[in-house]
Amino acid sequence: MQKRIKTPFYDDDILSSLRVGDRLLLSGVVYTARDAAHKRMIEEFKEGKSLPFDVEGQVIYYVGPTPAKPGQVIGSAGPTTSSRMDKYTPFLLEKGLKGMIGKGYRSEKVKKSIVDNKAVYLGAVGGSAALISRSIKSVELIAYEDLGTEAIRKLTIEDFPVIVINDMYGGDLYQAGVEKYRER
Amino acid sequence: MREIHYDDIVKNVSTMCIEANYHLGEDVMAAFKKAIKEEKSETGKDILNQLIENATIASTDLVPMCQDTGTAVFIVELGQDCHIKGGSLYDAINEGVRKGYGEGYLRNSIVRDPLQRKNTEDNTPSIVHIELVQGDRLTIHMTAKGGGAENMSDLKMLKPSDGLQGVKEYILDIVSVAGPNACPPLVVGVGIGGNFERCAYLAKKSLFRPLGERHPDQTIASLEEELMTEINRLGIGPQGMGGSTTALDVKIEVEACHIAALPVAVNLNCHASRHKQTTL
Predict the structure, then answer these.
(1) Do A181 and B235 touch (CB under 8 A)?
(2) Taking every annotated instance into account, which residue ranges of this chain make up the domain Fe-S hydro-lyase tartrate dehydratase alpha-type catalytic (chain B) (predicted)?
């Protein structure tokens, strides 16, 4: 059973209803950012500049899409490994970010920050980039065009498939799932 | 001496890059379908179905199956009675990559300098390994190797006294540590023996073999099967969310080594095990 959920997460009731293992279809807005964009956002903020978009309630999708073919909204756009962003994530959560979409483990520090800031970490299926790109309806370049695939883009999504990995109660699907099926 | 023209290599390499990224091999599709029947987790089954659907969309719409269109890695078997006419073999391969990644709308993921990190914008340089063989043919094996799985790969210089048990424990440990990060279900490529650099090459080379194909040596074939069973009992499952399909296959290559050494390398591949080959 998949729940239909709207982004951004301005409403705490939505986030508090999410539990690890829930399968969601997201619709609304998410922002793309990966390694180089995270590094620049935070370096610039420390220099006194503002963040390239207001992160309050927003969701960041860790992705570096392929170039769009003529007629396409976006190229193939599956999730990248989230742990590379761990260094930057607690800062963004403290600034009001409410969700991240990626794949793979988060650090203990990030998991604690997810609980402390009442946020959520969502897993998209790594590699299913052609399928996922069908749920991306529009793309707007927001910042750092020079970073190419790593630039920050605002995506409008519809029925984007994700699974809750870390909820605001400290649950972790990677731990729970493996424990359930481990035979050695 | 047989002549092979530079332009023919460029053309073939370009096509391989595009085809590898758009069309998942029949061997991988067959492995997905087999895994669905055996997978114990419902979420795991859903994920495997999603991967099949994704591969079908990529193939039909002619788009990359994954946004990480990889480092282009080549193992080239160059017949010693071949003459490459019109330019160097390395240049021809890189020109083919440049052409294929550009025309195929594939993502450029290579940075010129590991510290400065400026993208080369054409996915070159590629990684090219040349093996000199007998005859007058040129066989090019290509893989588009994803960064997520490559990042979780590892090499260890074990002691001879660690033996087979040590080798198995090490491989299981690397797969466990990789967990969801390497995009399971995985293809686990293993190199045993050689020396430090040769061992890593063997692990990578093993990933070029089609899924479902066992090593010709019966002892190694049995070890591949045994490790496959053990890995699938780790519980990691599709995307690391729990389940019984952690590996689609295990591939092992073995070579002679020094009396003091037992090198083992594990090169992980994500489920998008993209490999193509062509013979000129």
Answers:
(1) yes
(2) 11-278
Q: Which domains does chain A have, with CATH numbers?
A: 2-183 (3.20.130.10)
Contact residues on chain A for B240, CB-CB shorter than 8 A? 104-105, 174, 177-178
Read off the DSSP letter of residue A66: P
Select from B65, B117, B240 the Cβ nearest to the Cβ of A127: B65
Main-chain phi, psi angles of B190, to 5 degrees: -125, 135
CA B15 to chain centre: 18
Whether the CB-CB separation of B152 and A95 falls below 8 Å is answered with no
CA-based nearest residue in chain A for residue B180: A104
Q: What is the DSSP string of B189-231?
A: EEEEEE-HHHHHHHHHHHTTSPTTPPPSSHHHHHHHHHHHHHH
ipTM of the complex: 0.93
Domains of chain B with bracketed CATH: 2-21+65-145 (3.30.360), 147-273 (no CATH)
| Main-chain phi, psi angles of A104, to 5 degrees | 95, 170
CA atoms within 13 A on the CB side of B245: 27
Model confidence pLDDT, tens digit, residues A135-153: 999 999 999 999 988 999 9
